Amino acid sequence: MSVPKKIAIAGITILGVALALYAIENIRGKAAWENFKKEWEAKGVSFDYHESFPPAVPSNKNFAHTPLLKPLLEHEWSPDGTELIKNPPKDATARANKLMAMKGDPPSYGRWMVGQRVNLVKWQQFFRDQKDWPHPEQPGSPGADILHAMKKHEPELAELATAMRERPQCRFDNQYNATFSMPLPHLSVLRNAARGATLRALAHLAEKQPDAAVANLKLTLHLSECLATEPTLISQLVRTAIQKMVLQVIWEGLVDGRWQVEHFIAIEKKLASIQLLTAFDDAMTWERNGANFFFTDFLKKDKNVWRQLDALTDEPHHDGLDFTGLVPDGFLFHNLVNVNRMHLTFTHEFIDAKAGRIYPKVADRFNEAVNNIKNKPYYILSAMLLPSLDKSAQRAGASQTSVDLALLAVRLEQHRVKHKSYPKTLAALPGKQPNDPYSGKAYRYRLEGQRYALHGLGWNIKDDNGEVEEVGEKEPKVDLNRGDIVWRYPTLVK
Known about the structure:
By secondary structure, this protein is mainly alpha-helical. Among the domains are: 3-45 and 282-387, no CATH class; 57-162 and 181-256, no CATH class. The chain has helices at 3-41, 90-97, 120-129, 142-149, 154-166, 186-206, 210-225, 233-255, 261-272, 276-296, 305-313, 329-350, 360-373, 380-385, 389-419; strands spanning 76-77, 84-86, 351-352, 357-358, 444-448, 451-456, 468-471, 477-483, 485-487. The strands form four sheets. A three-stranded antiparallel sheet has the order 5-6-9, with helices on one face. It has a two-stranded antiparallel ribbon with strand order 1-2. A two-stranded antiparallel sheet has the order 3-4. The longest helix is centred in the N-terminal third of the chain and has 39 residues, at 3-41. The protein is globular, with a radius of gyration of 27 Å. Residues 316-324 have low confidence and may be disordered.
């Protein structure tokens, strides 16, 4: 037999073996995925991505369909909803996207957790320095000048306030079939609208107008709760960011004694309804089932897996080479098994929504597991899609604690009004009080001077005696890894 013929036969043999191994890998991978699903479905776990979608809302009752907001999500999509064809016209979305648009570096919105108020004088000067924001010829009080500046967006904020009353439900028209690549332009608009309402509320407080302040507070809180049923992690993180503004307003009103009994009642009702742990747990499910849908349905049409992941994570994973057309489906199925195993073993254990608990030690084990699997082929997708989920759980715990502390503060003030003094313990407050999600026990409370101190444990699950830790020198931020989560007043700041 000639050498060329031997080479040809060897080539054909190698190709045949490769094709056989390719086919076997596909069969093994699909079988592993189907068996995994069957096992966990028997335990009550759903793998249906579409179950994560929030229910439809009638348009005339839908806050998201107010004329200011509805055009934001009016994209043109492919028939299956996986490919974006065209963005909404810019003129249709301009009004919403320009809301609270600012040049330069605006002042802080305050840091109530460390006893830092919003500096209204800085905001007054900031608006006077902005050429496209109205201001009186001569400076007045900071609150009055800020309210003057906010006239620029009075039509938009008035529309949102009206929609809040007339359209009590909310469901944005997100194209969930696009999974991780769906646009979410409404998030920045809601956040900016919340900034406007927050500034107005703080200015009204400064001008001793608590009724107007609480009206803007309600609007800010409504903007955050519009995202309550939105199952993406980024939506829940924006929701908590807006809630920080709400808590700043509540805190400042308590600092100055601006709120009256009717305001306490209204604020308490709103705060008592906020359950962040359930929403974050649901978001974990969305992340898991979104990955399943993305890789089993969407990428069947496009084998270019790594380029898709590059767009999602902003990191190159294929080093300029594209072998993804050769990647067997079985490889993806094996990875899907492990993405789901990591979720079901760890991420759903970070948060026990029914018990109202957060378990940081589970997150520690999760991080160790992620580090151990980074270079294993069947865990590549896990390593790419999972790393930040523990930080989301941390944010959920800190945010729920913050809301709980504000709720307790409002109830303590109502007790003071009724009984002319603060109670000796939280147990003296009527009804059931929230527990610390980190300890599962009552929040720490002590009388101090003319007021009180409240705190919950942080991520380190250690009572740091009501001390907050900060990180960074130029622009310090609260360090959620260390220290407690505290409701304090300026007189308590050391």
